[in-house]
Specification:
The complex is a heterodimer of chains A (260) and B (250). Chain A has 260 residues and is of the alpha/beta class. In chain A, 33% of the residues lie in helices and 25% in strands. The longest helix of chain A is centred in the C-terminal third of the chain and has 20 residues, at 236-255. Chain A is globular, with a radius of gyration of 19 Å. The relative contact order of chain A is 0.17. The longest helix of chain B has 37 residues, at 162-198. Classes of the chains: A alpha/beta (260), B mainly alpha (250). At the A-B interface, loops of A face helix 7 and helix 8 of B.
């Protein structure tokens, strides 16, 4: 089935295991997953299930034990690129905000003024241009995550990989940033792969939500959420999808004897 | 108010110290030829200044100090960073370090003299050896404790080669730790300067030894205070530089 689909990113039979103190732990076993161009896909599941591992493999930060990752090239034949937003913003503390945003641009053939212009444009997009000359320690958690998002968008990636980017924020800031992401995604039409353990968040943001569960992780549920953005958080379709995933989530946890 | 009080107490302590120092030889408690009072120092200082000895000694010592520091800090930082970045280099050098590290800096004096004679190069060598180890371990530790997440971040943005990692993350992240080592080295190097010069290399230490052999104890004290003053100036200048380099810290 998966082989016939024309996705931007395709994972075929992905497996990943690591060994520590002689014990072999399988994180992923034969995972198939396709991410369509332009899609917002959420990977949801309990902490430690291996959602982030999937992102790390796609970003080239972890190497699968077996299986294949294929990323379709762009229309002009050049390879597609990915950029990552981490849970902790991971700003470089010695760089001002604008230089953090320009970080990924420094290996491209760009003049310093072109990098600066691009970084300012991205700061404008996340509504932080006023703080361009600040150092990271002068920012709030939400502002830091906006900078991290601007840094990822600056390199104009084909796919935006987001690893629980809002989970460390307070609920009000989290909602604000979710709405910001919806707005920015509409403006940039990026393909997004978004990892979260928050089912409400997944359902609110995504076109499609996939529940990963068990050890090694497998796809326990998949919901398509055909609802245009911006959405109302209390829309009955969202509530229904959330309910459904919650039930699967709870059922699987019970079956695994895992009280997550 | 507390600040003013502290300053006043510090000044008071200094005045009491100078008063006791002045009183001891005047009251005949100690031989004035062995412990010259502070009031005798300005005259001795002016004499050294006019003869040109003071200026020559200061320039000589600062020269050894600067060159020894640059060599020691440069090599210590380079080797410390490489050893911190690559486990293979760490393993390869572990044995050598274990043998050489415990050798006190001054134990290199005989070799310094054999290799370089009683020359500025010998002084530079002794200073650089002491500085090297301090900066080496500071740089090694600082590189080892660089946040792994930031290195992963650099990799995620395509900075995967050793050089890219060094320039984009390791060096800036390790700078505060390396600077702590450099500050310690500034003090250590000053000790080495005097030690090397006591063995005859021209500078403050040598001039001090000459004065002591002539029992000119007031001149000895002038040079002791000169060393304290120069070190104080170097430390203040370094704190300024270091504060500027780490201005991004909270």
């Amino acid at each position: 089935m998966a082989h016939q689909m024309e996705g931007l990113i395709r994972l075929d039979g992905l497996a990943l295991a690591f060994e520590r103190d002689g014990t072999r732990t399988e994180v992923l076993r034969h995972l198939d997953l396709t991410i369509e161009r332009g899609e917002f896909l959420a990977l949801v599941g309990p902490s430690g299930v291996g959602k982030s591992t999937v992102l790390r493999v796609i970003a080239g930060l972890a190497h699968p034990s077996s299986g294949r990752i294929s990323v379709a090239p762009r229309a002009d034949g050049t390879p597609s690129s990915v950029a990552m937003v981490f849970q902790d913003a991971r700003l470089l503390p010695w760089r001002r905000v604008i230089d953090n945003v320009a970080f990924g641009l420094e290996r491209l053939q760009l003049t310093k003024s072109a990098r600066r212009a691009r970084a300012l444009e991205m700061l404008d997009l996340v509504r932080l241009e006023a703080l361009a000359e600040r150092f990271p320690h002068e920012l709030s958690g939400g502002q830091r995550q906006r900078v991290a998002l601007a840094r990822a968008l600056a390199v104009d990636p084909d796919v935006l990989l987001m690893d629980e980017p809002f989970s460390a924020l307070d609920p009000v800031t989290r909602h604000t940033l979710q709405d910001e992401l919806v707005r920015i995604r509409a403006a940039t039409a990026k393909t997004v792969l978004f990892v979260t353990h928050d089912i409400d968040e997944a359902v609110y943001l995504a076109d499609r939500a996939i529940l990963l569960s068990g050890s090694p992780a497998r796809i326990a549920d998949e919901r398509r959420i055909d609802l245009p953005h911006p959405r109302r958080r209390d829309h009955h379709a969202l509530v229904a999808a959330t309910e459904h995933i919650h039930r699967r989530f709870a059922g699987d946890s019970y079956a695994d004897g895992d009280g997550v | 108010m507390a600040r003013v009080n502290r300053l006043a107490l510090a000044l008071l302590g200094l005045v009491v110290f100078l008063a006791l120092w002045e009183a001891a030889p005047r009251l005949g408690l100690v031989n004035p030829a062995l412990v010259p009072g502070p009031s005798s120092l300005p005259k001795a200082f002016v004499k050294e200044l006019i003869s040109g000895n003071w200026g020559e000694a200061v320039v000589g010592s600062l020269g050894h100090y600067a060159v020894g520091l640059v060599v020691g800090i440069g090599l210590g930082a380079i080797f410390g960073i490489l050893t911190g970045m690559y486990r293979t280099i760490e393993a390869l050098t572990a044995g050598v370090i274990r043998v050489l590290r415990p050798v006190p800096g001054l134990a290199w004096v005989p070799f310094a003299i054999i290799w370089f004679g009683v020359s500025p190069a010998a002084a530079v060598f002794i200073i650089a050896v002491g500085v090297f180890w301090i900066v080496f371990f500071a740089a090694f530790g600082a590189v080892r404790s660089v946040d792994r997440d930031l290195i992963e971040l650099a990799a995620a943005f395509g900075y995967r080669s050793g050089w890219a990692r060094l320039v984009k993350v390791v060096l800036p992240a390790a700078t505060p730790g390396i600077l702590v080592g450099v500050r310690t080295a500034l003090g250590q190097a000053w000790m080495s300067v005097v030690a090397a010069e006591i063995f005859g290399v021209a500078g403050l230490g040598q001039r001090m030894m000459q004065a002591s052999s002539l029992l000119a104890s007031d001149i000895v004290v002038v040079y002791m205070l000169t060393m304290a003053a120069l070190y104080g100036l170097v430390d203040i200048a370094f704190l300024g530089l270091s504060g500027w380099l780490t201005r991004w810290k909270a």
